[in-house]
Write a structure and sequence with these properties.
Layout: H1 3-15, E1 19-22, H2 25-32, E2 40-44, E3 48-52, H3 57-63, E4 68-71, H4 77-87, E5 92-96, H5 102-111, E6 116-120, H6 123-128, H7 133-160, H8 167-180, E7 185-186, E8 191-194, E9 215-220, E10 222-224, E11 227-228, E12 231-237, H9 242-261, H10 268-281, E13 293-295, E14 302-306, E15 319-322, E16 325-328, E17 332-335, E18 338-343, E19 346-349, E20 358-360
Parallel strand pairs: 1-5, 3-4, 5-6, 12-20
Antiparallel strand pairs: 1-2, 2-3, 7-10, 8-9, 9-12, 10-11, 13-14, 15-18, 16-17, 18-19
Helix pairs in contact: 7-8, 9-10
Length: 361
């Protein structure tokens, strides 16, 4: 039994259940190292098993040395789970409320007979909040690939913008560059937004051509060995106006001061307040409408959050984004995002791309 499974079993004691069924793909991978797309974990004090089908038996046997690998095809998933619980004399089993569909729940309820089902929330996710050294190394490498992509994309835009380059072309080039440097994919759909469209925090790249006077927001990340990266940089095309500079420098100051404020024991709300006050004091408070940041790991959005409601305390080993923004309708927006790891004496910033305003043209 690996340490992560032991930690989960300790949490299950508090839930007063005899076993847990884990179906969330990221939680399944975190506990077992299984990277396949089909299967679930059954975990009790006596049994730790991965239930999958013929397609993944060989893969699972290689990836999951701490788990018994079972093919559920002959007995069915529910039937095999019932057999395991009867063997372990389980009277109450936990399921992941946020990941089990209603149809799956009805199937469990019908097949488990007198075994009580208890819905739980965020048990494995709670264990995933603090990253170990291997996880941080994977995140660090993923973010480094993003840095490489950003360096490349600036040259790409400089070479192309006079002839006309679109948001879609920039997004494709970012993603291709990350794949060429070791990423297995993107950690979310890349955001490239220019001009007035950059005031949309989650804009979708389109066929708009970059023009003079445009802010260009680029928010992108990749996956390396299962772990995500996330970064945002904003540039301007053509000579920046005083308004461009004021907005950009306000966001930059909010980013830098919030990063300085991060320490173990601080809450997400306390860090969010630092950035939000700077932006509000400059008169842009109504234009910063999202939280300051979120944790990153196997999923791009994890807990805890840096937000007005973030009351969880930061701990050493947590990886969080710091991404203040200002978004002015019909003009444009700025977001600057770094990915940092909480350390004993502050932070380790995993993002090395420059933050001074880059002007194209």
């Amino acid at each position: 039994m690996n340490q992560r499974t032991r930690n989960l079993l300790n949490l299950l004691k508090d839930e007063e259940v005899g076993a847990m069924i884990v179906v969330n793909p990221s939680n399944r991978r975190y506990l077992s190292n299984f990277t396949g797309s089909a299967g679930l974990l059954y975990i009790s004090e006596k049994t730790q098993a991965l239930l999958t089908d013929f397609r993944y038996i060989e893969q699972a046997s290689s990836q999951c040395p701490d788990f018994e690998i079972l093919n559920h095809q002959s007995k069915g998933m529910v039937g095999l789970l019932k057999e395991l619980m009867d063997k372990d004399q389980v009277k109450k089993v936990a399921i992941e409320s946020d990941s089990v569909t209603y149809t799956q729940y009805l199937g469990y309820e019908a097949g488990f007979d007198d075994i009580e089902i208890k819905g739980t929330q965020s048990l494995v996710e709670r264990l995933r909040e603090v990253k170990d050294a291997d996880e941080i190394n994977n995140i660090r490498r993923a973010e480094a690939i993003g840095d490489i992509a950003f360096t490349h994309i600036i040259s790409f835009i400089k070479d192309r913008y006079q002839d006309g380059v679109t948001e879609n072309e920039i997004a494709l080039e970012l993603e291709t560059t990350m794949r060429k440097h070791g990423a297995s994919g993107t950690s979310f759909s890349s955001i490239v937004a220019s001009g007035a469209k950059s005031s949309l925090p989650h804009a979708v790249p389109g066929d708009k051509i970059l023009e003079n006077g445009d802010f260009v927001v680029m928010d992108f990340g990749c996956i390396y060995n299962g772990y995500c990266s996330d970064m945002t940089r904003t540039i301007v095309v053509g000579e920046p106006s005083d308004k461009h500079l004021d907005i950009y420098n306000t966001v930059l100051l909010a980013n830098e001061e919030a990063i300085k404020a991060i320490k173990p024991g601080k809450t997400g709300k306390e860090i969010d307040d630092v950035a939000r006050k700077i932006i509000a004091d400059k008169g842009y408070g109504d234009y910063f409408g999202h939280g300051l940041g979120h944790s990153v790991g196997l999923d791009i959005h994890e807990e805890p959050r840096l937000s007005p409601t973030g009351d969880s305390k930061l701990e050493v080993g947590m990886a969080v984004t710091v991404e203040p923004g200002i978004y002015i309708p019909d003009f444009g927006g700025v977001r600057i995002e770094d990915l940092v790891v909480v350390r004993e004496d502050g932070i380790e910033n995993l993002t090395f791309s420059p933050k001074e305003l880059i002007v194209i043209g």
